[in-house]
Amino acid sequence: MTKMDWPLLFVAASSLVGLGVQHHSIKYLNGRVDSLSNTENDVASLKLQYNVLHEEMEKLQKLATKDIAGARKLEASPFTKDAEGWWVADADMFRFPQGIVIGDRKEDCDY
């Protein structure tokens, strides 16, 4: 019968266990790196979408500001209030300068 070298056997077994743990750790870390890579791609995509939306919002803001700047002043309106509080225009401005109400006019209704 051969004599076993227990210290050598212990070192070999410990090494195998250590390699197994390292392999598991490396697989775990690779999974985390892949996850981070996907997250970076998602963030890059969201940044691109944000930039596109931001540009569109700036365009809309410029258009809104331009429309407000070129809007008519109320004083230049062809309408005036009559004695009953209705906004009316001169007879030669519109086909129906006094407005149109279909049905009965109700005093407590905001037209």
For this entry, give a set of tags.
111 residues, mainly alpha, two-stranded antiparallel ribbon, 1 helix, 58% helix
Can you tell me about this structure?
The chain has 111 residues and is mainly alpha-helical. Helix content is 58%, strand content 5%. The protein contains one helix and two strands; from the N terminus they run H-E-E. The chain has one helix at residues 6-69, and strands at 79-81, 87-89. It has a two-stranded antiparallel sheet. The protein is rod-shaped and about 125 Å long.
Compact summary:
The chain is mainly alpha-helical and 111 residues long. It contains one helix and two strands, in the order αββ.
List the helices and strands and how they pair.
Blueprint: H1 6-69, E1 79-81, E2 87-89
Antiparallel strand pairs: 1-2
Query: How large is the count of helical segments?
Result: 1
Order of helices and strands: HEE
Radius of gyration using CA atoms only? 40 Å
Task: Briefly note the structural class of the backbone.
Answer: mainly alpha
Percent helix, as a range, is: 55-70%
Strand content: 5-15%
Output mean pLDDT: 78
How far apart are the first and last residues' alpha carbons, in Å? 112 Å
- Globally, the shape reads rod-shaped
| Low-confidence residue ranges | none
Q: Trace the largest sheet across and list its strands.
A: 1-2
Q: Largest sheet at a glance?
A: 2 strands, antiparallel
State the assembly state of the protein chains.
single chain
Number of strands: 2
